[in-house]
Amino acid sequence: MFKRYLPILAWLPHYNRRLGAADLLAGLIVTVMVIPQSLAYALLAGLPAVVGLYASILPAVLYALLGTSRTLAVGPVAIIALMTGAALSSVASPGSPEYLQAALVLSLLSGLILTVMGLLRLGFFTNFLSHPVIAGFLSASGILIAVSQAAHLLGVEASGYTAIALLGSLATRLGAVHWPTLALGAGTLIFLLLCRRYAKGMLRHLGLAETGAALLARSGPVLAVAATTALSWQLGLAELGVAVVGDIPGGLPPLTLPGVDISLWRALLVPALLISVVGFVESISMAQMLAARRRQRISPNQELIGLGGANLAAAFSAGMPVTGGLSRTVINDEAGAQTPMAGLFAALGIGLVTLAFTPLLQHLPIATLAATITVAVLTLVDIPMIRQTWRYSRADFSAMAVTILLTLVEGVEAGIISGVLLSMGLFLYRTSRPHSAIVGRIPGTEHFRSVTRHEVQTLSHVAFLRIDESLYFANARYLEDTVHAMVVRRPGLEHVVLICSAVNLIDASALESLDAINARLKESDVTLHLAEIKGPVMDRLKRSDFLDDLTGRVFLSTYAAWQALGNPPE
Amino acid sequence: MFKRYLPILAWLPHYNRRLGAADLLAGLIVTVMVIPQSLAYALLAGLPAVVGLYASILPAVLYALLGTSRTLAVGPVAIIALMTGAALSSVASPGSPEYLQAALVLSLLSGLILTVMGLLRLGFFTNFLSHPVIAGFLSASGILIAVSQAAHLLGVEASGYTAIALLGSLATRLGAVHWPTLALGAGTLIFLLLCRRYAKGMLRHLGLAETGAALLARSGPVLAVAATTALSWQLGLAELGVAVVGDIPGGLPPLTLPGVDISLWRALLVPALLISVVGFVESISMAQMLAARRRQRISPNQELIGLGGANLAAAFSAGMPVTGGLSRTVINDEAGAQTPMAGLFAALGIGLVTLAFTPLLQHLPIATLAATITVAVLTLVDIPMIRQTWRYSRADFSAMAVTILLTLVEGVEAGIISGVLLSMGLFLYRTSRPHSAIVGRIPGTEHFRSVTRHEVQTLSHVAFLRIDESLYFANARYLEDTVHAMVVRRPGLEHVVLICSAVNLIDASALESLDAINARLKESDVTLHLAEIKGPVMDRLKRSDFLDDLTGRVFLSTYAAWQALGNPPE
């Protein structure tokens, strides 16, 4: 019981010095590496940069206590920051105290939603986000975030939380480009892109081991931050009009209390729900990938509680909504983290930085952070996945395309909601017009396949109709029409055998339709038989009067029906 | 082409005197019989009684020209009147000119929605209303209408469009019961109930033929209207405070133009959509039942156009939303109608009544009409259906129960919308946790059934797993877990055969999961095979890389896999 809700009890008793050394090193590396992105994502959400640091401390501690992944690193991430910004700007203006307050309420709501979902074991809910919808949403968000950072790279102001609004806003301000900012931003961008493309190969070439090379190659953003901060400080870039992070209040995160303004809670409820679900999906996917590689187990419902705890911690420590982040987790993993203790060490490290070293970040140019974000989010744009989906299924692709389009044009909430609804609607639509096939016997076997695809034996007075779908309200009438049309086409028919090998459910509406089919066939002197009904479906049918009224029989297999109803030439 | 959109061209050329005589008689009978209910349903919708007559003239003519049912009778019906009243009272107060105007707009919107759905061939949309939801909605509406009529029977005022509001309103006014009205109403009610229960048997006993007896038994409301009108006139009941219909303007329906107030259109759009769908479902169910009995064909999409035309006609002739009505259609059918010409004759008859005989209705007590409605709608309450659904399926029953509850407590719109959403959600939930079964061979056959339900042969190094559901995003991860758990339980496993006889679809998300399963099994040196993949599913898989990566083979049948992978003791 305790172990279920406090996974830390599972590993802490076995903790030893070897694990401790590995975790300490990983914690140190993570501390240094995630500072730039923590600052950047806070700015992306329209919040002061320091909020990104605050949100990397206490939330990480809570996840370490409650989460089931050994190496997941929790903190601000790009998508969630984008969604946070979109949600907050609809209720307050960036920079105002209300905006900060709303960020706390959003974290609190997210935390509550995740925790309650976890306690009620509702993790399966996230299964309704299909892969194409997630991939489309991530791709579109990547583009959207990159567009939002363009203004910082160009040194102009731009507003809006949709790609259209941002581009429109940018277009009117192209004349005001601030050239020193652009030079710095573009330089950093090119450096980071080169790092990502070539650094690992070069480092390996120089003789570094695989993991070390990978890790060092990821330190590009840290180098860029250090170099441009030094440059900015030495040349006094701030005086030239280059935007910098500026004064960051030192000290540990303050204790904060989210307000209880009901109208604010109501306004943020849907965004909080979406942030929770999207954040959870991003986090659990990565946790499961890592766990599979290390042969560990993840409990989705306990993960909800872990992330819920992290967000509640954010709400009470001046933070913002958080989740398990792709890049911080990869860094943690490559740095050799063994247990959540690494996360605790990293939280401690960032806490120390926040306490004492924020003045170092004062001269850090915003354009550097924008370049860091841009390079990070471009990996979200997954063109091969889009192409592959198009090739495999037009229906899946259309859900993906709508998600991408609406995310860009209407924003993140509209995008993900319509993607989910459309993919559900398409599934329902597909099941409402089920495939069915008239089948015949493959000569010499007990196997039956479609008459249009295989060379099979048939009987003129018996129709074997295989229904390729569960029978439920949306397709009940369609089945009636299918059977009716078949009977009209074949005047010599005496028996209809419905093969139910693919029927996993017969609901009350479909039962009425079967009754109607049975009655109508009876009027035409055609007998209705069923074959290959599954156990659970049969159990249910026995609870109704249908089997008493059925004019024909229920056969265990199609072959049994074939033997009983025909005299097949053997 | 012409025949498709103007079904009248299919029967008019073959029209003859024999058909004409039958239709004329039916038209006359319908004229007399439907006048009480037409008046009553207009009042139920909060409209002047005469609107019910207007809505029985031109709409019926349009349906006769455009509809595909030979005997369906179109006009105001109880459910639609109730929904109309609920919709109109949310935008205007009953009795005001705006209320009448809104009724026209509602008819127009319904007409447009139905016509467009018909032209776009969207008739299948109505399949998403499951039988339990419809039955629950009709039962609850029956109760709701009966409660709404109680005020008229007691001679008090009551307001509201939910059962709760109406009962609350009634409770406060019980002291003001108008005894003469109650005596008249209760008397009529008892007379009508006795008619319904015993009249047909008595008439048969007196020697009347089956059809004649049935028809005469249905004339109870006409007798009640005639008798109470005469009584009311002779005794001057109106002066005693008994509410009567009062002056009805004579003359044919005036030409009306629905306004184009955009905010009104927007407010009435959802109600119009619901009225269209519910009206269509009620109408098509009956039309199909009658057509099946007479071996005629109904075209659902042309029916949409027919009902759309009828509602457009209502909008331009001072009417209200209409649909094919249960009781008027049964009367038409029993009166021997052969073609839609009977409907034209009835429209002509009601037109004549409206033109010249409305003064006769002046003294008709409202309580009589309320008794007529109450007796009519009590047949909507289908207790056996509710009990049967409970026995057959708890999921279907829960959708039904929610529909009933919300219809009574929150109103018709909330009831039907939540019923539809819940039944869809339940279906998605059920398919998200698919049933699967480990199967074995029934000795001596090529047939495989569940190891838990049948005595079967199994192989220790091969697992045959039958998946009983299409594989799509909502259950993709569930499948991964199922396979993973099975492999963990059986250490000696070398082969896993997924039997896909019930898999009608593998979407892009499920394809990724299969890829993941394949890769994970490969790491544990277990080979993944597929068996019994359906033709359309296989076509799609061939468009992906999955079959190239699959570690095992694709077998046509489970038996083929059994033969290839095992050495079954024959």
TrEMBL record, chains A, B:
State the SUPFAM superfamilies in the record. SpoIIaa-like (SSF52091)
The primary location reported for this protein is membrane
Arranged from A to Z, the UniProt key words for this protein are: Membrane, Transmembrane, Transmembrane helix
Q: Which organism is it from?
A: Halomonas tibetensis
Q: Which InterPro entries did the record assign?
A: S04_transporter_CS (IPR018045), SLC26A/SulP_dom (IPR011547), SLC26A/SulP_fam (IPR001902), STAS_dom (IPR002645), STAS_dom_sf (IPR036513)
Q: Does the keyword Membrane apply?
A: yes
Any coiled-coil ranges, and where?
none
Keyword S-adenosyl-L-methionine (UniProt):
no
> What is an example of a Pfam family matching this protein?
STAS
**Record-annotated STAS domain positions:** 452-565
Protein location: Membrane
Q: How does this chain sit within the bilayer?
A: Multi-pass membrane protein
Q: Report the domain of life of the source organism.
A: Bacteria
For this protein, the record's PROSITE patterns field holds:
SLC26A, STAS
Residues that span the membrane, as ranges: 21-39, 45-66, 73-93, 99-120, 132-156, 176-194, 215-235, 264-284, 304-322, 342-361, 366-386, 398-429
User: By what name is this protein known?
Assistant: SulP family inorganic anion transporter
Enumerate the CDD domains for this protein: STAS_SulP_like_sulfate_transporter (cd07042)
